[in-house]
Protein 1
Amino acid sequence: MIGKKSIVLIIMDGLGDRPSPILGGRTPMDSSYMPNMNRMARKSIGGLMHPFKKGIVCGSDTSHLSILGYDPEKYYTGRGPFEALGLGMKVEPGDVAFRANYATRDGNIIKDRRAGRIRDSTSSLSRDISFKVDDVQIEVASGVEHRAALLMKGSGLSDKIKDTDPHEVGKVYEQPEFTEEEGRKTSYILKNYMEKARKILENHSFNQNLLRNGHLPANELLLRGAGRAPMLENFGKKYGLNAGYIIGIPMIRGLAEMVGMEKIKVSGMTGSTDTNYRGKIEAVANNMGKYDFILVNIKATDVAAHDKNPVLKREVMEKIDEAMELLVELKDRALFILTGDHSTSSTSGEHTGDPVPILFYTSGINTLPAESFTERSCGKTGFTLRGLNVMDYALQLTERLEKYGA
């Protein structure tokens, strides 16, 4: 690949949005001051991208799989394994993993699914509720704030298990019942495990300290997204690209690790709105000579939208744009792809099935410019593609794609 441009895929999580009354009927992108990304839009191939299929409401896991060229219908088994990998857990064939939330339980009722968006490290809780039940080793790893992952290692395990997370406050936590007969053992093990884990959490010094200081305790571990680790082809082998990643959130970091990408270290990556935006983009500029492909995930846009805060999402977009100034003059060295993994409404706080804006920015191409990097402007170009075709398009723009046919 000597002499060919690097491919830099920058995914702004939950990028797209819908008009907000708070923003005068405009989206956060449309109301943002983004001179750098708008400048890129006017010299790019701009359009809209459907992360998977038109109208499908994707999660970040399935959409990232799709955009990287791994068909979710073939490979997706659940988000749990990616979350566990991203937290440094050793996930092997046959293991079953869950996403997890430390939550606040009042009796059998879930009072807060995020334990007051706990900021203190829950690593001591995770360590003390990692133990063996019968022949199954259960490990818990802490993530950012309330987030965690649970990994099960043993024979005869299945991911055919219901979530224990009721997904709403004020409801009773669910039992980890099996959805198919093969999950009977896993369900039995988890029920026994949760009974013991609740007693440990209830009496843990960490939670006693939270209560003394007027905070909600993290006395319940809610499970969701059960899955087995899929067998994904190595990204470098699949595309012939030496790949690195710059990612703050565990789930996407786990996916990158699973396909063999190398970690590019950046200090101050938080997976939230206080992340080191400029540091991420500086790392891109500094590593394009080392890697043929760099994947960047910026979670902050999605965080703001889930919090139903369109003003904050606009502020995040403007911080991203300020950092992007470093890349504007580097189009002779790389193909920059700017897009989102899905749309997230900052009005409802939920993912939507709307397409997301996408730009292919580099030199020496026939441009199809958008007036600005917004949902509306990118939609006016008439250019659309599916997430599964993003890598194909990138490879052909950098003269790497093999001819189809004679």
Protein 2
Amino acid sequence: MVDAVAATPDLDTALRIYRTMVECRDFETRAQELYFEGLVRGTTHLGVGQEAVAAGVAAVMRPDDWTFCTYRGHNHTLARGTPMGPILAELFGRGTGLLGGKGGSMHLTSVEHGVMGSYAIVGAHLPIALGAAWSAQYRGTEQVAACFFGDGTTNIGAFHEALNMAAVWKAPVVFVCENNRYMEYTPIASVTAVPRPAADRAAAYGLEAIVVDGNDPDAVYAAASTAFDRARAGEGPSLMEALTYRHGGHSRADPGKYRPDDEVAAWKARDPIPHYRERLLATGADAATLDAIEAESKAKVADAERFAREAPEPDPSVLETQVWADGGSSWRGPAHG
């Protein structure tokens, strides 16, 4: 496990990490409630319980770095500073949503904030993140691509292909496996030959096996600091495995009953947010400051909800736009007949 003392964030950074985690939790909690009210369209995959991974990594990133994440991407999108209102409006399928209501929960993207997409095809974004990293290497910008994925992705071919080429090219990409112990409904341990599905494969590509407590934002920050420094210095990719746990089921109304009750209770007792609050108080943070962060977070969510509720439906005129690369919808292939 990575030693959190190796690169402990200063108080201002720690408060920023705490703010990010609280805002992610409040946003997703309300989004789930709004889903049950029938306002959030399509499916949703929540990262409640996993906030420390997104917040810890985002805290070391430059504004021009890139984030690539999965369909469980709300936390990562928020952690890069994307406003809540357009995100929630996107979940509502409204015209002022982040993607005009066309992407929904599973495809959040904000190039302006370095969020280069949430990908629904498992493993599809690893080679794309590698390509972005290669472009930064080619242009000499010292940008880094952060690529988040679940434990199930480690058994997908694209995981191995992307890691191999990243290592060969010494590309500035940081791969972060959010190991929450379950793929969809299947425990990762029941279908994988090694105990740590990401870290135990690192050596095959000449990489260090990095395992970090994914519920400890300081440990995540420490590991990410080292990984990003290496990437910017031209020393190649890193593969981090962050051990964490989603509090709810895989998606939507999934109650997650396939998980043992004692396991769920044990992980909820390690909830990263209250634990980090206690650490901040013990290291000199003012309780009033933390209370203010929590109050401001709830106000932000309320404002985002108002924005989303008042947002218009998409205009029918946009239905056949943004289909192909030229922005149109006309098929350009050979004629059939």
